[in-house]
Amino acid sequence: MSKIRDLRVLITGTSSGIGKALAFEFANKGARLAITSRSFGSLRKVADELEDAFPGIQAPLAVACDVANRENVNQLIKRCEDHFGGIDILINNAGTGVYGYSEMTALEDFRSVMEVNFFGAVHCILSVLPLLKKNGSGLIVNISSIAAMYGVPYLGAYSASKAALVALGQSLRAELAGSGVSIMNVYPGYTQTGFFEKEKNVGGAHRPPGPYVSPQRVAKNIVRAIKKEKQELVLSLGGKTLALSRSFLPWLVIRAMKRIAEKLRDKKEEFNE
Which range marks the domain in which residue 230 is found? Predict the structure, then answer.
């Protein structure tokens, strides 16, 4: 996909963070956008900001949708088909999380994270695939995380959900070979999305120190990778180091994760003293 202009792009979880930054990046390239999140008020605000920033663009199709609800997703895809005549790119970005001690995390919190991060993407993929296969072309982009490569301390539920999404993407990539439909798995590192401030904290776990990159930088790299037709995109130096280390130095990754857990636990104890 060397050219983005006029492509029909559906982005889930567009009200903030990486999703919002992607909407601006695609709009800047001339794409036709469908944006969605659970809150229509937040979504409408993003749509207005896009139209103000890029006068003359086709107004984004803004649809409130809970991706964890299969019927909501079916209606979303139908709206996109009626409005655009189809979809060229689906970006599974909607996500949620729980931060803290896995053993203290309620079962319903594990389930809710999986419902959005994994099953939400499954709902979108199953609904959009018939359109892409009918066209004989298309791209599904799964926004995963470096936490999918190796479970990050105090992000157990989140890591598991993102790892499941990666595995699904890898399976689909092989199954769809020859169909014209491609899969890209993206692994952002720590990003300035407010995740640790807005998501539930179980047991008062301390926030990781970072470094954190801007969602705008992440979005630019994702769009650049789409144009280059990459299938896997690891976005941070830490992520690239982790990807290599888990294959060639697994003992080092195990030791590093234990050390990270100890440091964050020590910070929590210092804070509580």
Answer: 8-236
pLDDT digits (tens, 9 = 90+) for 158-186: 999 999 999 999 999 999 999 999 999 99
| Residue 179 near residue 136, CB atoms below 8 Å | yes
Q: How many domains does the chain have?
A: 1
| Global confidence as pTM | 0.88
Q: Would you say 213 and 170 are in contact if contact means Cβ atoms under 8 Å apart?
A: no
Cα–Cα distance for residue pair 122/74, rounded to 1 Å: 12
CA distance 25 to 19: 10
Name the 3-class secondary structure at 42.
helix
Instruction: Tally helices (H) and strands (E) across the chain.
Output: 10, 9
Q: Which residues are catalytic?
A: 158
CATH code for position 195: 3.40.50.720
Q: pLDDT digit string (tens) for 227-244?
A: 999 999 998 766 677 766
Neighbours of 69 (CB within 10 A): 16
Q: Are strands 32-37 and 8-12 parallel, antiparallel or unpaired?
A: parallel
pLDDT at residue 269 greater than cutoff 90: no
Which residues lie closer than 8 Å to 3 by C-beta, 6 or more apart? 227
CA distance 183 to 178: 12
- Share of residues in the chain with pLDDT > 70 (%): 83
Averaged confidence pLDDT in the chain: 88
- Does residue 253 lie in a domain region? no
DSSP 133-189: HHHT-EEEEEE--GGGTSPPTT-HHHHHHHHHHHHHHHHHHHHTTTTTEEEEEEE--
From CA 128, how far away is CA 138, in angstroms rounded? 10
Give the model's pLDDT for residue 201: 60
